[in-house]
Amino acid sequence: RGRGCRRSSRAAAAAAAAMFADSAGPAADVQSVWRSARSAGCKAKSCQTGTISTADVAVQSHISRDAGVQTDQSKDDVQDFQQEVEVDYSSLLSFLQRVENVVIKELNKNWKSRAFDGFEVSWTDQNETVLCLHTLSYPEAQDQKLQVTSVSWNATGSVVACSYGRLDDGDWSTESSYVCTWNLDRRGLNPQRPDLVVDVPSSVMCLAFHPSQPSLIAGGLFSGELVVWDTSRAEDPVVWRTGMTDDTHTDPVYQVNWLPDAQRRNHCQLLSVSTDGKILVWREERDGRLVLGEGFAIVAQQIPRSAQLKKFAWREAAVGVTSLSFSPFDPRVFVVGVEGGCSLKCSTATQTPALQHTGTSVPLMAPAELVFAPHGGPVYSVSCSPFHRQNLFLSCGTDGRVHVHSMLQTQPLVSLQLSKKYLFCVRWSPVRPLVFAAASGEGNCNNCFWFAGDVHLLDFERSWQKPAVSIKQSAAGSPVYCLEFNTKQTQLLAAGDAAGTIKVWQLSSDFTEQGPREMNHLEQLASETT
């Protein structure tokens, strides 16, 4: 039995070995099902947008329609208008024949009339009043009771300057004073805080801005010196000065003028006048000095006598000069006002040496050529006309009168009583040939029809006898010592008074627009003889 069991187990093992033996069969190929399923679900996409559809559309309407602003006529009106008007021609002819002579006569009269000669329509707005634009002052100067002695506009017309000092102090004064400037075009203008304040050790009696350099201003002092300041230099504004030399004036300087320098192109010289009788011309030096270039002296013995002025007795001494004005048409001719009450026509071309004047570095000449009829007191201001070639000029003084003179005759063409007190300044308008302004002292004129003590504007187109407008400068009636027209902004007029105030007035268009026949009227005035 045991052998039989072993045989059967061996047979089973052999059968099993035959069943699991190594063998090489053909290769099997199995396809991936999940890849094919995934690729079937994919879609092709791009990162760019698809094509954008566009269309052109006009912004204007392509349909237009005309519409009338007037109402349409009715059909009945059109028919009535289109109907022929019946005219009685025989009656019309008879009427024209009756009035023919009368109409022709009136037409001839109108043709010869000059009532509308030169008439021009003005399309600009008319300013009918005179307004105060600015009231300027420097409180520190007013605290010292200083007066405005002079005003001046710079070359651009935007800056106004004033000098502070005293005109009513007869004694020698060593009191300090100020020169102040205001830019009227500056935003935030403070009328009581000047843009520039220059401290000056002596009273400043007069000022004059340079004609082309807006920052340069010259001043004449009570001490007789001349100083030129540069207002663009706040720290040290003094650029030239005369100092106290043998050439310096010995009396206060009452006027300074800038003159073209004939020897140096684009340069100016300074001219000064003083009550010491001298008229001096100064030139600038590089070291900051003003050096005397030439000079003139008014001496009583050398003033031409006039047969019409025999009653006027000259003192045998130097004649104090108070004011000066050059002719705009002849740079050699100028007019001076003197303390003796006369105005004198003078010339820089004189070759006559002046008497009794020695000690200066250059010889002084005697310029006087003609003496005009005197005022009743010292002459304080003269002003030559900028319009007339025969050299009309104005003068005013302590007698309260304004004289209108021609340099061709000694007697005035016109004499106007504007005040019973002093007239301190007179200026011809730069734009109106028949307009001028005068500054007066306080008080009422008993023989006048206006208040005397302020700024008077006279227009000879309106009246030959009284001012067109009298402007009240201050409520207290302080004397007005100085005034100046603005040649750039011609509607502006600046005036300074004894209270230390400067007022800038805006003139009405009546005083700034020249009339069509105004020059003809000026010619008629100049051709008159007394």
From TrEMBL:
GO cellular component: ciliary plasm; cytoplasmic dynein complex
GO molecular function annotations of the record: dynein heavy chain binding; dynein light chain binding
Keyword terms: Cytoplasm, Repeat, WD repeat
Short name of one Pfam family: WD40
Top-level taxonomic group: Eukaryota
Subcellular location: Cytoplasm
UniProt record, GO biological process: intraciliary transport
Annotated PANTHER family: CYTOPLASMIC DYNEIN 2 INTERMEDIATE CHAIN 2, DYNEIN INTERMEDIATE CHAIN
Protein name: WDR34 protein
Gene symbol of the encoding locus: Wdr34
